[in-house]
Amino acid sequence: MPRSITAFSNPLVKRVRALRDKKARRKEGLFLAEGLRILTEAREAGRLPKYLFFTGEGAAHPLAQDLIVRTEAAGGEAIETDRDILSKMSGKDNAQTVVGVYREFRTALTQIDRTASDIWLVAQSLRDPGNLGTLLRTGDAVGAGGVILVDDCADPFSVEAVRASMGALFTQTIAAARWETFLAWLRAGPGELVGTSLNTDADYTQPLGPAPTFIVVGNEQSGLPPEYEAACDRLVKIPMLGKADSLNAAVATAVMAYEVLRQRRGG
After folding, report:
1. With respect to CATH, is domain 3-103 assigned 3.30.1330.30?
2. pTM, entire model
């Protein structure tokens, strides 16, 4: 039976609100996800919240009712509250009617089965959580195996990244490593590392090498460092026909990912 929380001073409300901060997320090993769509995506991926907060309005939806039942059956706690408290938790004035608190999850690089997909996305020092969330969403859209975060990237479990992923956070394998560790792992098995860069004349539609393809994108401002570009099996360039010299990092990755998908499907 769900309990009710109506006070802003409730210790659990304060604890959940603190998860908007990276240090609190790391300490607790928990993160926030908002909205019925995202929480349903999580459920379909086999992940249920430790805490499920909902309004009376939100609980009226059949999908929310299912989440409540499944959360409690799995040992989680379902808690009825109001929109003001959900706004306090999420930091949004127009809060969703359901908010879930989930345990963080990551996959060790050594546990990744690279043959699970022909496409993998690699982000190096990507700092914008919105870009990272978009990258996860792109990975889901093209059937990528997952996203490998290299060096100091944005936190995929931040509220902003989770929102931008639109639930793809729960469908994608997520791993993190320093560049040297990633490169050693990559070279221990099959796969081609393809970097998007302005420092080449090779068109992004050129034929691919052996699968899987690892698409690496660099930092939003500086791109890949020269030594990282040198380690790629190939560098490719997306043509820019207007005045801008480059695309947004997440957009460029999406363009490249769909080109890889096109070629792998024999298009």
Report:
1. yes
2. 0.91
